[in-house]
Amino acid sequence: MNRPMNHNLPKLKQIIITAAREELLPRFADVQRSIKADGSFVTEADLATQARISRELQQHYPDTGFLGEEMTAQEQAGLLSNSDSLWCLDPLDGTSNFAVGTPYYAVSLALIERGVPTLGIVYDPNRDECFVAVRGQGAFLNDAPLSVRPAGLPLSKCTALIDFKRLPAQLAMDLVAQQPYASQRSYGSVALDWCWLAASRVHVYLHGASNIWDYAAGQLIFSEAGGVSSTLEGEAIYTNDLSKRSSVGALDQASFDQWYGWLYEHLDQKKPRQ
User: Fold this and answer.
1) What is the pTM of this model?
2) Which domain covers residue 112, as residue numbers?
């Protein structure tokens, strides 16, 4: 099992929390946004927060590489395969929410060592909630141990957290038309989605395609909290490259089996289950 490098977790949390409070909160719902080449939004807050956190990480951890969402694709290319240890930062996950005043966004930081996420921090400044996980050492919410509570419900009674916009079209239509769950939510921040699932605030989760900086920290937190997850193809979610990954999650194995089984049967092109 990979063990995280000798890090100062209180210092890391302070860097993330202070940056979010001083760079994000003062700009909340009062920013100009622009559209990036991939169609997503970016704001002054994204750029300022990334610049600040990058600078402070470099100061305290000069031997660890850095990959940030707001870097260019050329800058990002090769970092994952050429770095023994690497910070992976989303300075503002939920930019669209942030720009219009919806208080569901976060800063997400993962440490990737030898191709494996070993530490994750996701901080929600609106609720002052700091989710943390260290691989093999559990998950925490504001320093209290965090573990999922088994749903103990049939899928038909579960609350599902689903991002529809990147799902296969037929699967999305089947979910709406047949609704195998009791209720559905869509909030708009992948990192926080994983953390809310880890906190048992929903029962099952589905996302069609997210980037490594969106999910690396949050999915580790969920896994360390005891949750069950895979891609729609039944593979491990984390892969040490920049490809987008689908995500299926549930609080316990029984719930996951029901949820994944239903999704698998409604995929247009099925691959053999892993």
Assistant:
1) 0.92
2) 9-145
